[in-house]
């Protein structure tokens, strides 16, 4: 395979999957991964759960052992920021602790990820916006001595941190501005069930209530004033109100951006030598016929490997169903495919027992599912969603009808042409 230098910007799971994919596809040129953090690529999901609780150490976070990069001849430039892309000369400008430099490339992958959205005026040493390993280290340290924790935002990060803190015996209060949590990602039925689970574990969840002000008290605590006028004193505040894609580098280089870096189904950006993958990429999906940006761990990993092959000329479209999960307490919520908005679910299982699946159904087809403690349903729908099948509402509700039998032919559904 032809030589050259392929550079990956971003040290998350998409970037890690890409450098591995380049080597597994037989690329024998130079592979360089540039990461702004000082750490080698690591897994983020444990940061809000086992690692935060002290049940897992850092050695279990690494995507690959450090020796793997050396053995595969992958150069890691960690603690290094890419400050500019010269698309004409195919050259990066780098900034690191030891000074600025340049790095030429033949193919470039942008996997720059996302960063937490911040609330105006809500900042301080004991106010955390968790995203990175260093963020998780600081939050874990503060949780050890904290008695009362306030979480702002009942999304996945907020709820996972709330579950971890409650499991550590902390008094937890959650403020969520929306009256229907997880309205778009899970739908009201599953979202409501998750909130009920948190309340059953002693978490004070206040829906339809945001945070207006945070102030320090004279006795070394934080005082949170809600939009409804309630006041809650606490030791630590965790904010999880969404994320925004890191597109500034692409914008400055003239690469097309719209709520993420726009790519075709191959992962190519508006500049043919530059690709994007992971949370920052808004990739065209040939099945859905539109550009989609998914902040999912599984999607980032699969896109990274997929784009790596296309950087070497594979010309493969990324057309996989989306899948994600979240573990909270002893429960696991998973989803596959896409849920419409609004979502009118078809239910299999028992909602009152908090073990059920909510299916999205349209014209005799399953288009998506979100499940609470029924992982097999999600696995079956991942295989089913793009295959030819026909199912009635009665069959979908009937647990005696195996979902996996609905797509025995495994025939791909016709789809619109790639943009």
Question: What can you tell me about this protein's structure?
Answer:
The chain is an alpha/beta fold and 419 residues long. The chain folds into 3 domains: 5-115 and 244-311, FAD/NAD(P)-binding domain (3-Layer(bba) Sandwich); 118-241, FAD/NAD(P)-binding domain, CATH 3.50.50.60; 332-407, 2-Layer Sandwich (Enolase-like, domain 1). 23% of the residues lie in helices and 31% in strands. The chain contains 10 helices and 26 strands. The strands form 7 sheets. Strands 3-2-1-7-19 form a 5-stranded parallel β-sheet. A 5-stranded parallel β-sheet has the order 9-16-10-11-12, with helices on one face. The chain has a 5-stranded antiparallel β-sheet with strand order 22-23-26-25-24. Helix 1 packs parallel to helix 8 (297-311). The longest helix is centred in the last third of the chain and has 15 residues, at 297-311. The protein is globular and about 60 Å long.
